[in-house]
Write a structure and sequence with these properties.
single chain, 522 residues, alpha+beta, 8-stranded mixed β-sheet, globular, binds FE2/S2 (inorganic) cluster
């Protein structure tokens, strides 16, 4: 069967995550009055929901607010591997941060795996949880030494790591590393079950409630879009990219990467294990129970948000890889994910800044959010309950010992500045003609407009200046959205927020004086 058939079929429908498609929508109320709690958690993904679960058990009065629906953002677009094997990281961590901090990283993530395992058992959660070995492999001779070094580093930190020359995938490899007792699950089944549990025990969950500001002072308050406030003694910001910076300068210390996922039906069973390669382009694989059989989830094709307009080509590359590797029967799903990347590959978990003792942040999980996000919730719970965590030093958000990564830091920062400046100055094309299904930046009467012509020929126009910090948005053709290259905010064709940190929708050029006639787009 040709690639083209699969490609045509899958591209006829918009991308949709299997995790969302296979679970019911939640229906928690929106906040409709001011409330007082001990702890306000902003963001209902894996960090927020896990932290609420832990803190409710400690007797705190907790509220979780989510701008859209809970467990619907990055936590619903992941590959949902639960592992302490985060690429080739431990050898570098040991070199850059020393043995103690590398060990903290390993232990925090191993504890997170065991926490999820125990939580599933204790609460009898039906979420396709299963223990698996995790493998990193290479087909490239240049990576053999790196894998050897990684096995040694991981072992020295107490992880059961094994060097291998063969793996159970249907191709030969040059070298591989295996961690045992790792796991995979269905993230929404897990998170929705926990949300239900905590809601029954008194945690207030509010959906469609966007936080737009935090008021600091004698008392902390979360200000929401509708003007209602949550007064709290402590606040946890778990909004993926922090929507509130508090002079922590997160916008200059992180960038956002996009990756793509397909789920396929194959003619042969997928081997035991979860797999990822060491070299570029990244290819990550796992199986997932699907109806009365299984499907294979394949992820990869990472790039900085906004660097690619033809995002469909990224799905095509994954489909090609699937067809070369497996006997593909059908492509069931495709979706994409965005992940926050820190300058030293280590998440920021702890106090937002050294001057905010009661505001906490968890971000920068660089695609390993199921485990690192759970570790973050455990660490923040300890900071609140005990005043300290044994893992705080490695994740401390205000760390300054990042000199080894200074070059990347500067490059990424320079990119942001470049986008801010050149995005503004570069003339947008003046060709207005749009085909159905096409989106493009155009310049009309000196205004930079994002215009999209839908399949019925209707024109949707936005002012394509990001409402976060003013970068120029770029068109994402695969998902029909306007994406920000600076910090990853995404907006729909009509300017609604799909993903933060932006907390305001896009302006509409047709709401301004000197309206633009949509007929000019043909
Ligand atoms: Fe920061 Fe757009 S997300 S400027």
């Amino acid at each position: 069967m040709s690639n083209r058939k699969f490609v045509n079929e899958i591209f006829n429908t918009p991308p949709k995550s299997y995790w969302i498609d296979s679970t019911a929508e939640t229906n928690y109320p929106a906040l409709d009055k001011n409330i007082n709690v001990d702890i306000a958690i902003i963001g209902g993904g894996i960090v927020g929901i896990t932290a609420a679960y832990l803190l409710q058990k400690e007797g705190f009065k907790v509220a979780v607010i989510e701008a859209n629906k809970i467990a619907h953002g990055t936590s619903a677009h992941t590959t949902a591997k639960i592992t302490s094997q985060h690429g080739l990281i431990y050898n570098n961590l040991k070199k850059q941060m020393g043995e103690d901090k590398a060990k903290q990283y390993a232990e925090a993530n191993e504890s997170a795996i065991r926490f999820i395992e125990n939580t599933v058992k204790e609460n009898n959660i039906d979420c396709d949880f299963s223990l698996k070995s995790a493998y990193i492999y290479t087909k490239d001779n240049n990576y053999i030494k790196a894998i050897e070094d990684e096995v040694d580093a991981a072992k020295s930190l107490g992880i059961d790591a094994y060097y291998m020359k063969e793996i159970p995938l249907p191709f030969t490899v040059k070298a591989a590393m295996r961690f045992d007792n790792q796991a995979q699950f269905h993230p929404r089944k897990y998170l929705l079950a926990i949300s239900n549990e905590i809601s029954n025990k008194g945690v207030k969950i509010f959906e469609n409630t966007r936080a737009v500001d935090i008021e600091e002072g004698d008392e902390l308050s979360v200000v929401t879009e509708k003007g209602f406030k949550i007064h709290a003694k402590r606040i946890i910001i778990s909004t993926h990219f922090p929507f509130y910076d508090g002079k922590g300068f997160y916008f200059s210390r992180m960038y956002v990467e996009k990756s793509y996922i397909i789920a396929i039906k194959t003619n042969e069973p997928f081997p035991e294990g979860m797999f990822i390669n060491a070299e570029d382009p990244p290819r990550s694989m796992r199986s997932q129970r699907y109806k009365d059989g299984e499907m294979v989830i394949i992820a990869g094709e990472n790039h900085k948000v906004g660097d690619e307009t033809d995002t469909n080509s990224r799905y095509n590359n994954l489909i090609e890889f699937a067809n070369e590797t497996f006997k593909t029967q059908n492509i069931l799903y495709r979706w994409s994910a965005q992940d926050c990347m820190t300058v030293d590959d280590v998440p920021y978990i702890g106090n937002l800044t050294s001057k905010t003792p009661n505001i906490y942040v968890a971000t920068g999980f660089k695609k390993w959010g199921m485990t690192s996000g759970t570790a973050a919730a455990l660490i923040i719970k300890d900071l609140i309950v005990k005043g300290d965590s044994p893992y705080l030093p490695v994740f401390y958000p205000s760390r300054t010992d990042i000199s080894a990564s200074a070059e990347e830091f500067i490059n990424q920062n320079a990119d942001v500045v470049k986008e801010l400046v050149t995005g503004k100055l570069k003339a947008a094309p003046k060709d207005f003609k749009l085909e159905n299904g096409e989106g493009r930046a155009v310049e009309v009467d000196g205004k930079k407009i994002g215009a999209y012509k839908d399949n019925k020929g209707n024109i949707h126009m936005v002012d394509k200046t990001c409402t976060h910090l003013g970068c120029e948005l770029k068109w994402n053709d695969g998902e029909k959205s306007w994406d920000c290259p600076c910090h990853g905010s995404r907006f729909s064709i009509d300017g609604d927020i799909i993903e933060g940190p932006a907390s305001k929708p896009l302006n509409h050029p047709d709401e301004q004086p000197n309206k633009i006639n949509p007929n000019i787009f043909g």
